[in-house]
User: Fold this.
Amino acid sequence: AQLHRPIHGIDVELPLGVTLTVNRWSKHLDLIIRMRPQAGGQDGHCGNHNGDALDDTVDLIKGRMELRVAKSDLLFPKPSTFGSDAEPK
Assistant:
């Protein structure tokens, strides 16, 4: 952590009990997503929230889900024209 710098962050409450915490640092963002278990199950980077850590290995997670965002779902479909100059000063 960068304890010598103030954290610039926001908390966002979304539908279905989903909350986002976004903290902006000088060179990166930290994002925390909190949510209740969803009806019918769920899966993600940290597992499937079923209480069985044995089925949450990287290989098993990769086998259960597509790890790429579909082109139609991209928020930024084109590379930035600013390149590394887009970093906040």
In short: Strands lie at 8-14, 18-24, 29-34. The first strand starts at residue 8 and ends at 14. Residues 16 and 45 are 19 Å apart (CA to CA).
